[in-house]
Amino acid sequence: MKNILKFILFLIISFALISPIKAATNPYAQSGTYDINCTWYAWKMAYEKGKVALPSWGNANQWYNEAKNDGYKVGKTPKANSIVVWNNWTKYGHVGYVEKVAGESIYVWDSTGPCLDEEDPEFIECIANSINQDTEKICYQNAKRIACEYDVNDPYYIITGFIYLDEIPKKENTSSNNTSNNTSNKTEKPTVVTKSNNNNLSNIELSVGNLTFDKNILEYNVEVLNDLDTITINATKEDEKSTIEGTGEYELNVGLNEFKLIVTAEDNSKKEYVINITRKEPEIMDEIEEGKQENIVENVEEVNENNSKIDIYAIVIPTIAVLVIILIFVLKKRLGKNE
């Protein structure tokens, strides 16, 4: 009997050891348009480092609002153990796991990294002892990986916000018994009004000059002729709930002129489009022609002035001559009477 019990116990222990431990499954595909999907990588790091299995929230630019709708705490303040959401990194957005925060820097595990720890003593020693490019390459391959540093105030990659993972919302109890017995006590989930995060333009128009618009291209360069001293910039927003700053008529200086269009979404996330307009220097021939025109004008004015003098002389001199003749005639007449 003891042998049978030992055998049964052995089977139970063996089954426990060989049975796979069920782990959460990453809902995102590992590869995508930009090689490794940032959503897959951020989910993976949140699970491995933050011990949180996130739900599927779609593309990266949807994570912030979807997390908010699911009851996660979100905000604009960077914190460790959070997900950072960039809305304008690509047309799909970008996300990463924030491991730590120091001043204005956040240290992020994301699909564009990770970064090398070039301050690691082992790496420094390896590089110092490297004898050629091949051994140096091995140093880089074996180097310790760390989170990449990002500036929270980077004007190019604008942060939408952070999803905080310290407090995970509890799931509703979906037990059939609880549902049947506690129907009267069930409270409906409050409706959350989601504000639009669409801060894209649908078009930019210039009164002069060619500009091929793409909402994902944030900087444009346009060249115009020197004789253009003003230009009008108009823009159309993709979402009617967003606002645009920077449209209107502007004076152009010779050389580079920078104009910015700032689009603010309903949720206050911003995107900046930059238009660099270069007004050409005046052409040398234009200056020469302008000089010729000025000389012609001066010559015409001088001729007109001389003609005016001639006209005056033509009137005054004959008049004086006639008056002299009349005076002589009168004097002769008087002298004759006196004799």
Could you please describe the fold and organization of this structure?
- The structure is a single chain.
- The chain is 34% helix and 25% strand.
- It has 339 residues and is α+β, with helices and mostly antiparallel strands.
- Among the domains are: 25-169, Alpha-Beta Complex (endopeptidase fold (from Nostoc punctiforme)), CATH 3.90.1720; 201-279, Immunoglobulin-like, CATH 2.60.40.
- The strands form 5 sheets. Strands 3-10-4-5-6-9 form a 6-stranded antiparallel sheet. It has a 4-stranded mixed sheet with strand order 12-17-16-14, with no helix packed on it.
- The radius of gyration is 42 Å and the shape is elongated.
- The N and C termini lie far apart (190 Å).
- The relative contact order is 0.08.
- Mean pLDDT is 81; it is low at 15-21 and 173-191.
Write the layout of secondary structure elements.
Blueprint: H1 2-18, E1 31-32, E2 35-36, H2 38-49, H3 63-69, E3 74-75, E4 82-86, E5 94-102, E6 105-109, E7 115-116, H4 121-128, H5 133-142, E8 145-146, E9 148-151, E10 159-164, H6 176-181, E11 201-206, E12 219-224, E13 230-237, E14 243-245, E15 248-251, E16 255-264, E17 270-279, H7 284-338
Parallel strand pairs: 12-17
Antiparallel strand pairs: 1-2, 3-10, 4-5, 4-10, 5-6, 6-9, 7-8, 11-13, 13-15, 14-16, 16-17
